[in-house]
């Protein structure tokens, strides 16, 4: 279908590949903003922006058909992002007097760059001629490397603003990003070992294998496997932290730091920061989809095998299989939308973490979890190759028990003699009242 | 030159190398610590691009992960925390540091250049062979031929981590 592209000059091929990633992201950012505002307001029992793009038809004009006269047509406020954009464009672009002008100017651009560059090795369909931009043999490492560059925009913006709140935001952000990068790398390492390749295209192919090597009609999406599920949870938390989104939005915590690193930015410079954040959300959702959710496959069903298993409906399944391949880009987009919805849901549900909670979650929970997951995956691979599958099961279960016992003991030791600050955390409605009573006194009691 | 001149790679190389050289000059030329650090970031980043364009993806990505993504972030962190400003320049009457530095720099350049440029005479291959320096052979080499140095390096890193925690904690 798309093989004619291979006849073009390599530079044109590269341009097409790049545009096919960058343009959808650019065009979907307004849609994401609309979706976030609407979904968030529904979740918070508000109405949200629903007025822009409402057409009020004339009561008298003859040009309007009779059944429309005097009526209103609503489009759910779909044009609201354009109104937002115009507002941001027309705002006065203030540059404070004390800023470091060069750095202040380039910081938003630096923040935008990694968000777009992140999609470089991400396949959105089974079309080797079109995607990914570069199918290099370091795909996952590339994602990690580029996401680690995200800290620069924030740090530079915070520093150049010459504002102590901005500086605090930048410092918090760099600490946060460095902490969560490790757990993210470790969680991906487990999946890389299971796949045996760093290429994201190979990872998607590995997920098209039979489920658990046993069910030939279903696909082995990594989120359905035990190790993949743990990796997915760790990766999900880390990706929310890497994009500075709630509940990890400490760098821009508005009740502590005004707006954090972009306090001094107005007009389009602020909009560029904003766009970078949304583009990063989009691409990270794409990475999550590609690595854990079977990439561009709509459903975890192996259509060809299903067709042979159910000969009566073979034609239908073959057709669905072809659609699964041909419309792969839309399925991938749908999974990205799912990821963004998860982001918004998290924002609506969870309150912001305190700084020590953030560090404790990253270093004491996620990193050990990801590392033990990695060890268990390694054990599984070694035992399967040397002693066979049944021995591998026993070894992995034993290792899981041993690791959780070790984690419990380590936690007990770490908590000994330390005031119990953790309990002061958030408790949702319906907690244990007796325990609540005990907590009120706090560490002083 | 005929093998190289036809290749658009030369243009790419010239652009990247020019930026890298300019950034390297900027590192020493800027009085402000932050600007110098940023120039170093650009330099490392463009070097990684050069590795990419030569087909050495793993090396390039390691360059970004280790230097651009980790070490330089810490540099910036420290510069931000200390709020390092451009130092007030003290002009000395007879500053022999500059000519001495230039002489040593030229000597070092000549030494390295003599070692590097000689073997490169008449080399026209712009890219490494496909698969050269790929993660798989690198990993295989690390865990077979270079297992002991690798393990020793990891022990060294572990000691470094423990030591930094010891230094950072006020009381254990």
TrEMBL record, chain A:
It is a multi-pass membrane protein. GO terms for molecular function: NADH dehydrogenase activity; oxidoreductase activity, acting on NAD(P)H, quinone or similar compound as acceptor; quinone binding. InterPro entries: NADH_UbQ_OxRdtase_su1/FPO, NADH_UbQ_OxRdtase_su1_CS. The keyword Transcription does not apply. It catalyses: a quinone + NADH + 5 H(+)(in) = a quinol + NAD(+) + 4 H(+)(out). The chain crosses the membrane at residues 12-35, 102-120, 140-161, 182-201, 221-241, 278-299, 319-346, 366-387, 393-414. GO terms for biological process: aerobic respiration. Keywords: Cell membrane, Membrane, NAD, Quinone, Translocase, Transmembrane, Transmembrane helix, Ubiquinone. It is found in: Cell membrane; Membrane. GO terms for cellular component: plasma membrane. Its EC number is 7.1.1.-. Belongs to the complex I subunit 1 family. NDH-1 shuttles electrons from NADH, via FMN and iron-sulfur (Fe-S) centers, to quinones in the respiratory chain. The immediate electron acceptor for the enzyme in this species is believed to be ubiquinone. Couples the redox reaction to proton translocation (for every two electrons transferred, four hydrogen ions are translocated across the cytoplasmic membrane), and thus conserves the redox energy in a proton gradient. This subunit may bind ubiquinone. This is NADH-quinone oxidoreductase subunit H. The lineage of its organism: Bacteria, Bacillati, Armatimonadota, Fimbriimonadia, Fimbriimonadales.
TrEMBL record, chain B:
Its EC number is 7.1.1.-. The keyword Protein transport does not apply. It is a multi-pass membrane protein. Pfam families: Oxidored_q3. It is an enzyme of class 7 (translocase). GO terms for cellular component: plasma membrane. The chain crosses the membrane at residues 12-30, 37-54, 60-84, 96-117, 145-168. Coiled coil: none annotated. It is found in: Cell membrane. Belongs to the complex I subunit 6 family. This is NADH-quinone oxidoreductase subunit J. It comes from Fimbriimonas ginsengisoli. The lineage of its organism: Bacteria, Bacillati, Armatimonadota, Fimbriimonadia, Fimbriimonadales.
């Amino acid at each position: 279908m798309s093989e004619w592209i291979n006849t073009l000059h390599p530079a044109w091929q590269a341009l097409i590949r790049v545009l096919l990633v960058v343009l959808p992201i650019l065009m979907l950012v307004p849609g994401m903003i609309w979706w976030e505002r609407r979904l968030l307001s529904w979740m918070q029992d508000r109405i949200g922006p629903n007025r822009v793009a409402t057409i009020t038809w004339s009561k008298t004009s003859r040009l309007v058909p009779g059944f429309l006269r005097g009526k209103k047509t609503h489009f759910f406020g779909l044009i609201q992002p354009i109104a937002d954009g115009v507002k941001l464009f027309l705002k006065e672009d203030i540059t404070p007097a004390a800023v470091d002008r060069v750095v202040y100017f380039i910081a938003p651009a630096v923040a935008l760059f990694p968000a777009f560059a992140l999609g470089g090795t991400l396949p959105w369909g089974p079309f080797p001629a079109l995607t990914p931009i570069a199918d290099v043999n370091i795909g996952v490492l590339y994602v990690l490397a580029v996401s680690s560059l995200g800290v620069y925009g924030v740090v530079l913006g915070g520093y150049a603003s010459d504002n102590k709140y901005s500086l605090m935001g930048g410092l918090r952000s760099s600490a946060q990003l460095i902490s969560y990068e490790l757990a993210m790398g470790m969680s991906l390492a487990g999946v890389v070992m299971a796949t045996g390749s760093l290429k994201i295209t190979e990872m998607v192919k590995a997920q098209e294998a039979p489920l658990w090597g046993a069910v030939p009609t279903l696909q082995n999406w990594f989120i359905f496997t035990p190790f993949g599920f743990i990796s997915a949870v760790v990766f999900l938390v880390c990706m929310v932290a890497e994009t500075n989104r709630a509940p990890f939005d400490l760098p821009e915590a508005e009740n502590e730091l005004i707006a954090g690193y972009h306090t001094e930015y107005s007009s389009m410079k602020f909009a560029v920061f904003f766009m970078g954040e949304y583009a990063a959300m989009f691409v990270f959702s794409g990475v999550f989809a590609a690595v854990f959710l079977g990439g561009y496959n709509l459903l975890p069903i192996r259509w060809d095998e299903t067709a042979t298993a159910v000969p009566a409906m073979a034609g239908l399944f073959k057709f669905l299989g072809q659609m699964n391949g041909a419309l792969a880009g839309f399925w991938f987009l749908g999974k990205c939308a799912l990821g963004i919805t998860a982001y918004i849901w998290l924002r609506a549900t969870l309150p912001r973490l305190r700084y020590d909670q953030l560090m404790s979650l990253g270093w004491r929970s996620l990193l050990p979890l990801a590392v033990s997951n990695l060890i268990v995956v390694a054990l599984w691979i070694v035992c399967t190759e040397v002693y066979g599958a049944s021995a591998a099961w026993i070894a992995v279960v034993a290792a899981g028990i041993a690791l959780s016992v070790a984690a419990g003991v380590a936690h007990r030791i770490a908590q000994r003699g330390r005031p119990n600050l953790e309990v002061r955390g958030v408790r949702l409605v319906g907690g244990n009242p007796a325990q609540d009573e005990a907590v009120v006194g706090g560490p002083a009691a | 030159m005929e093998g190289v001149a036809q290749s658009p790679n030369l243009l790419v190389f010239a652009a990247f190398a020019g930026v890298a050289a300019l950034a390297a000059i900027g590192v020493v030329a800027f009085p402000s610590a932050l600007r110098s650090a940023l120039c170093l970031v650009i330099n490392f980043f463009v070097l990684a691009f050069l590795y990419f364009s030569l087909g050495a993806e793993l090396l390039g990505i390691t360059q970004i992960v280790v230097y651009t993504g980790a070490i330089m972030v810490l540099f910036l962190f420290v510069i931000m925390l200390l709020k390092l400003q451009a130092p007030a320049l003290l002009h000395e009457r007879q500053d022999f540091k500059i000519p001495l530095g230039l002489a040593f720099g030229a000597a070092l350049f000549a030494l390295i250049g003599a070692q590097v440029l000689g073997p490169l005479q008449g080399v026209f291959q712009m890219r490494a062979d496909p698969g050269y320096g790929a993660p798989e052979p690198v990993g295989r080499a690390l865990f077979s031929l270079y297992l002991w140095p690798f393990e020793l390096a990891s022990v060294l890193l572990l000691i470094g981590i423990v030591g930094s925690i010891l230094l950072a904690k006020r009381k254990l």
